[in-house]
Amino acid sequence: MAEQAVTANRGVVQRMLSVVGVDTLASSVWGYVDTTIKWCWIPSWLPSWCPTSQSQLQTAEDMMLRCVNSAFSKQFVPISSGNQLWTLIFSSDNVKDKTPLVLLHGFGGGVGLWAQNLDALSQHRPVFALDLLGFGRSSRPLFSSDAQEAEDQFVESIEQWRSKVGLESMILLGHNLGGYLAVSYSIKYPGRAKHIVLVEPWGFPQRPDTAEADRPIPVWIKALGAMFSPFNPLAGLRLVGPLGPTLVQTLRPDFKRKFSSMFSDNTVSEYIYHLNVQTPSGETAFKNMTIPYGWAKRPMLQRMDQLQPEIPITIIYGSRSSIDSNSGSTIKEMRPHSHVEITTIRGAGHYVYADQPEDFNHSILQVCDKVD
Questions:
Q1: Member of which family (predicted)?
Q2: Taking the CB of residue 33, how many other CB atoms lie within 10 A of it?
Q3: What's residue 69's pLDDT?
């Protein structure tokens, strides 16, 4: 029955994609599929319905990292409540005395997506890449449904991780959700952040009160938004079961192009699939931190005055990204006596580090050169 429902809705999914575009996949298409077959949500059959497992995710990650030439170690770092954060560590003897660079991925991401950056960045200082709590191979606990409490859970997990691996201070680099958490962490633990690098950060501006007046939102989008609001962003990807891997390959071919210098097969799409069909822990937390149309419930710009002025910030945008870069200019205006640098990388979209890895790596190394 469930398989028949999925088959019947494939055409609907494809038609919706042509209207809303691939970038709204998580919040619309999968939400629609989830809505249409929610009657068959039976936890007992879901693991077998989705062709995935932790071992398959591990294999997919290993495939992503097979082209990384630098020596590195990997481990589960234990934190509170029996949780663990999956971590890659690059630390050769000639750079171990320098302030480490810590990479925080964005929503739905994982350590493997830094594959084109790890070699270059780790030649000059230690690099730590971790799967955020609730994502990737890290533990997937139950988060609070309260936005502030969920954010605090993320922040505390990073601090506990830092303490366990023994880092006194860090250069924090966060993409998307990772950028939001990097600033939140640095507000609470300012002595640990030597420099913050925000790459296409999510969650900084407040949703404009005049958005509907200035740019009217079509009725059909409002209707879809109301329909999808009860569901997790990627619920549909799990509920289409065996169709999931093929849909990722079909609907997001751009990821294959982003990593074409490393892989000619479906390595990237396989990794992205297995990352996002596990238990939706961090995904649920992220949903609870948002309001309709992807805005943050607790916009970070409203708290930038709590960040100590001596902490320098670098903000990186892609010239072809749909993300509004006005937040960068606003941060610069709000911090007139602080170091705030804004960099735009030509030819890059939202996934700057994968779209133009050489330019991105060069920009990050320039930032790191300013830190001991």
A1: Belongs to the peptidase S33 family. ABHD4/ABHD5 subfamily.
A2: 26
A3: 97
Q: What is the rounded CA–CA span in Å between residue 282 and residue 141?
A: 8
Alpha carbon distance 292, 221 (integer Å): 11
Domain that holds residue 303: 2-368
Structure confidence at residue 208 (pLDDT): 86
The per-residue pLDDT for 2 is 34
CA dist., res. 264 & res. 258, Å (int): 11
Sheet holding 73-78, edge to edge: 73-78, 84-90, 127-130, 101-104, 170-175, 193-199, 313-318, 340-345
d(CA 264, CA 256): 8
More confident residue, 12 or 151: 151
Q: How many domains in the chain? A: 1
Task: Quote the pTM value.
Answer: 0.85
Whole-number pLDDT of residue 43: 45
Q: String of b and e for 163-181 (b: at least 16 CB within 10 Å)?
A: eebeeebbbbbbbbbbbbb
Nearest to 266 by CA among 283, 244, 286: 244
- Do residues 135 and 81 lie in contact, with contact meaning Cβ atoms separated by under 8 Å? no
How long a stretch of residues is the chain?
372
Which range, of 54-63, 179-188, 225-234, averages the lowest pLDDT?
Answer: 225-234
Cα distances from 61 to residues 165, 175, 302, 323, in angstroms, run: 22, 19, 37, 28
Query: Does the pLDDT of residue 32 top 60, yes or no?
Result: no
Q: 69 by DSSP, 3-state: which?
A: coil
- Cβ–Cβ < 8 Å for 186, 172: yes
The more confident residue out of 252 and 156 is 156
